[in-house]
Structures
1.
Amino acid sequence: MTRTEGGCVIELRAKSPCDGLLPLSIGGVTLSEAAPGAMTCLMPYKGQAAALSGALEVACGIAAPAPGHSTVSDGVRILWFGRETLLLIGPEPAPELAQHAAVVDHSDAWAVVRLEGPGAVDVLARLVPVDLRESAFAPGATARSELRHMQAAITRLSADAFEIMVFRGMARTLVHDLRDVMESVAARAGR
Amino acid sequence: MRITCPLCGERDRREFYYQGAAVALTRPEPEAGEAAWDDYIHNRENPCGVTRDLWHHEMGCGAWLVVMRNTATHEVLEVELATDAKRTGA
């Protein structure tokens, strides 16, 4: 509370979705919150997918990824984010993109965490019904799937690092479920 | 049971929501008459064998799919995006 002109106003402070919950480190696997910057959902209008990809190349230097993939360049990432949906991460969206797609600000909509370490894939494999072996899910691959019972987006950043996104309101459940599994995987491995 | 989503690839059944027979793709005209509408709304086949259903890839990409499967063997025979099925008039 800040006292101004004889009355009280509430001083609002932005909190990240996993504020006070992370980081965690169990058995060599770490879970930390990512600060991805602006996140913008792009849904191309009918027949505009190619035009949107072209506009993205002009605006960000990278084209739209194919389903199941992501594209990355300096400080900009584009994730395939479902049927006819992309997620632009990093910069604010160029105004021209709105000519080809519905542009929706998702910056505060998602809890974004990073699961890293030699056992990260074993932790995720207990929660996600997707083939996570590197032969099927290489770095850069992305999937919309469920994590326990939450809708999630999972992207492989490197051999031992994954980015996991769930709706912001699910942040506490996400951390709870991941912590549970991190503990049991570590116990099983005797770490 | 696993369903191969045309966008996401082979995925576990738990990612999908079952809607029912794929009749919504062949909705009768508004003036088609009582019999056609009665049939569209109420009457369904219950085959022991090949059936054609609408599924929603709810926990995945969000696409509606037309899935042909065998109710006796649980074999999934064919999967296509509902938008494609609609376009080809199937």
2.
Amino acid sequence: MERYICAIVLILAAMVIALRNLSKSYETAEGRLEVLRGIDLDLGAGDSVALTGESGSGKSTLLHLVAGLDRPDSGEIVVGGRDISKLDDRGRAAYRRTEVGLVFQQFNLVPSLDVAANLAFHAKLAGRHDPAWENELVERLGIGPLLTRYPEQLSSGQQQRVAIGRTLAARPGLVLADEPTGNLDETNGDAVLELMLSLSKGTGSTLLMATHSQRLADRLDRQLHLRSGKIT
Amino acid sequence: MASLSGSQAASEGFAGLGSAAEGFSVPQPGLPFRFPADHGPHTDFRIEWWYLTANLEAPDGTQYGAQWTLFRSALAPREANGWSSPQLWMGHAAVTTSGDHFVAERISRGGVGQAGVVAEPFSAWIDDWQMKGLAAPGSDQLAELNVTAAAKDFSYELRLSATGPLVPHGDNGYSVKSAKGQASYYYSQPFYAVTGSLALPTGNVAVTGKAWLDREWSSQPLAEDQTGWDWFSLHLDTGEKLMGFRLRDAGEGFTSATWITAEGRPEPLPAGTLQIVPVRTAKVAGRRIPVAWNVRIPSRGFDVTTRPLNDQAWMATSTPYWEGPISFGGNVGGRGYLEMTGY
Amino acid sequence: MTTWTLATALLSHWRRRPLQFGALLSGLALATALWSGVQAINAEARASYARAAIALDQNGLANLVSPNGGSLPQSAFVRLRRSGWNVSPVLEGDYRFGTTRLRVIGIEPLTMPAEAQTVDLGNAGDLLSFISPPGTLVVSPGTAEKIRGQTDLALRVSDRMLDGAAFVDIGLAQSLLRRDGELSRIVIAENQRPGLEPFGALVPALTVREPNAQTDIEQLTESFHLNLTAFGLLAFAVGLFIVYSTIGLAFEQRRPTFRTLRCLGVSLRVLAVLLLAELVLFALAAGAVGVAIGYLVASLLLPGVAATLEGLYGASVPGTLSLRPEWWLSGFAIAMAGTLVSSAQSLLRLMRVPLLAVAQPQVWGRSSQAGRRIQVLAAAALLALSGALLLWADGLQAGFGILGCLLLGASLLLPAVLSGFLTVMQRTSSGALVTWFCADTRQQLPGLSLALMALLLALAANVGVGTMVSSFRLTFVGWLDQRLAAELYVAARTEPEADRLRAWLATKVESVLPISSVDAEIRGQSMQIFGVVDDPTYRKHWPLIAGLPDVWDRVASGEGVLVNEQFWRRERLRIGDQLDLANDWKSTVVGVYSDYGNPKGQVIAGINALTSRYPQVSRLRYGLRVQPDQVADLRASLSGEFGLPPDNIVDQAALKEQSRRIFDRTFLVTGALNIFTLGVAALAMFLSLLTLSEMRLPQLAPVWAMGVTRRDLALLELLRPLVLWLTTFIAALPLGLALAWVLLAVVNVEAFGWRLPMHIFPYEWVRLGLVVLAAAVVSVFIPLRRLAGLAPSELLKVFASER
């Protein structure tokens, strides 16, 4: 565990992401399913990009690949100058730990840890535990009263705020969000998104967010539309 | 012949008595009795008994019968101290009224004192039943007896006093039992006057009457083809006595009798002289038994018919048989006992 | 929808989860098996005691006995008979036929009351050969097998006889036991004529012993059965833990199905009845399997039980099992009851939960704060009760009460202790992963706590019973070394041979120690009196517990005797107490020696004192002191010179080995049950982990996503149960030692009459620890392999928004 705590990778002030000819397919009951077919994409440091498309258009898969959770069949994912698709399990884990923040639609939080521990969890893993920054996040997210609660005792909106807080507490260069407001009503969703945008701007993080809501997508710097495994 | 009931009881209960003598002594003619020694057990013989029957009467004239018997049966012709003694003892006691017949049985091993017989001072006992001689040492040990027996539903105590001598049967006590020569030593004291009391479920009764004691021992009392017997002991109103029996076999059977004068002189009668014929049968314990008999000795002009005090005088012991008081009438009257086995 | 369609829908759950199905059935079957196995053993043993009671206790008739427990004269019997009492004499004692020691019961068949004639002596001819020399032994088939060829006496085999006993004629008994004219007791028939003189007037020296007086054997063996039953219950409880958790899980997992079915119009009643029917079906199936396994277990263990009972208590039980309806019925009943108890909570919850409640499986097994508090309070109450019993209660039942409360209380406390331990660890750690590890383990505790409690019980029983047995063994072996000091033991076949042997030996060995003993009844107990010569062997080696300084001088002079520990404790004797040894033989207790493994009391007197009271005592057996290197030569010349068969010359080493073997056999059953229980506990743990592993993904996926490799996660998953096993193991050590202490210092004294020093065997703990570790690794192995082989896509599914 030491090696997680003593992680030494520095934050890259400017995270440049380049995807080249990225393809990914899955075996399904109906045969081979080509999810991504030759994606090319460049993201600049501090960009906030919305990824839109129908259900099943490959948004989540693309995010998972960029997060180092999965490997592409072919193509390159160059982040900060390294092709992370060439990294082994351990290398990709280190990458996720130190450079990426993830916000999912659900099951973001560690069920056995309370809110405070969840908030600090990723930052500690990344070796960037900063209580002052955490306090600020707690205040901005308005989750102060929830710190001793467990995830299952929170509403979906509360859970999502904690998840955002946990991600940003680790100051990742890259924030990947997969339908972060999908489980929330409109008002809550807007509030959460607003928070995420302003906070990631504040930390200089690059944000890549998958959503099928055009209204949300409009709020981001850039929009990419995914259809049949290709960016259009 | 009450005797032989015991022998049959023994043969069923303890096996082997109908077979050869196997090392046991065999009765020989011409050996006179020696008293008091012969009152005691003869352990070199297979079987032996002290057999008392009493015809009793209450002051109101009610008739009773009482029986007290001690059988000895030897597994081997010897005696030993302790449990290794091969002598087995069996006691039968009964009281008969016109309506009831009470029976009890005791079985014991010899050698430890639970049962046995001592010749002088005479005593025969099994458990708490006893026949005890009261006579002074040196005198006739059987002259005065005290007899007790007790069971769950009855008990009695009888005081016996002999008014005549001991009587040997057959050839001076050598009593032949079959044409093949089976024999026993056999003597009686038929002259007892009795006083005593019976304790019955209905209460105590003081009684008086007459009693008859048989002493008999042998080793091979029955011929193989003999199936049972009918035995009579009769007190005639004349003061005379008659002992007679018939051993039944496939043919005529074998009869024998002793006529005893009022003075106690035995007159053995030749085989075949006694004639007995059943005149009435009764259903007893699931079988038909001749309970009334015509008894005749033509040479003496003796012709009587007996009838039982109680048809149902059945001895429901380990070897069952019929034994009960009778009275008789004809050309002479009197009372006595009848025993029938093998029915 | 037909019932069949419904049932298919419900049962399909099990088809998709064969492992869970297997867990349910095997848990139930194992629980039933151990329970019914133990019941079978108990039933068999009890049946043979009943036989013993019939044969030995004269079927509930009163007896006349000597108040000091000694012999009574035969003349008393004759006197009673001649006063009209319907009584029958009995003489009992131990007699050796070759190498087999039998309880010889001399009876008198002609006077024996019919209600006491439990063994058929056959027809008149058989009866005659029974009472006539040389005589007949009436024995059980097993005993007949043992002594065939060892005796010239005729054997008559009766199924109604108990092993190790023989009916013989009273006369034969008197001559075998060399007790002419003596009786042990006089049986009083129920059927007596009225108006008899009372016993007080006839035999004032004797007392009537009423038939309901409990025999020693019953009391002693009762403790053993309580022991077995406790083990059986323990195993059953452990098995039920499995059933309970499996059923609970299956209900939770099928909640969506239930909801769907109810939405489709199936009434709650129909649903509940169907589920109940399903459970009954399972219970019957598992019960059948369980009874079959139980029969197997019992038939494997019964020889050991028989050995134990024979070794410890002298009670004889045949080593074969008969199929008794009472225990297979009870097997089914217990399976059914266990299933219903285990499922009651789940069924109730099903009835109560509203139709449209969240169909999502909840975190299973999470117990409420209040529930945990109640559990801790119950634990505290049980432990307090255990302490109170220890301080204020007496008797064997109290001893087992202490054990029960201690074990149950401690196991109820375990989850709270583990949870506290993990909380402290979590608080004091700063690393994110350590914190998570502790928190996650703590969160799993409710789901594992039943299995952990079972494990604690099994481990504590193992440590406790192991400590007891090892302490016993160590003490016993040391004691053997003291007791078997002579190098060679030789037995002559006849008295003249013994005379020649003594003369011959006089020049060949350092000393000859006669071993003479008589059977006696002292203070109402049947026991042996040994006579010893004055020899340094005894002075140096005999294991005295207490005694006067000049104890051996006093024994040699005939002034005093030694008693064994069990007699000493049972009778609360003190040094200096007077003891009536036999008619007209009084002596003083001058010392106490330990005499393990002997159920009976024993007295040691000077040989002269013994032979002067019992001139007829057998003087056939001798201990010989020689230089160890001469043993083989002496042995050879003994058999050469006297033609003694090998059985008659035993050397010390062989005797010790034999004693040790008997001892080890004695505790075979305990060991086997220990292993069974541990096995069931391990299975419970395995199944719980397996169950939990199915719900691990939501716990692990976020951590993995945040940058912990699957390999590290797998290692942590391996570590988690190991930490729990280890913690439980450590908790089991003090509990096991407490258990051992109660067994040695409380239960043992109550049950056997001797107290043993407690020895600690850390090496055995290490061994047990390794076994536990191996079991733990095995129990984690399958769940872990599943995790290690997990594809990222599986983990990703957790996050997929389109689930």
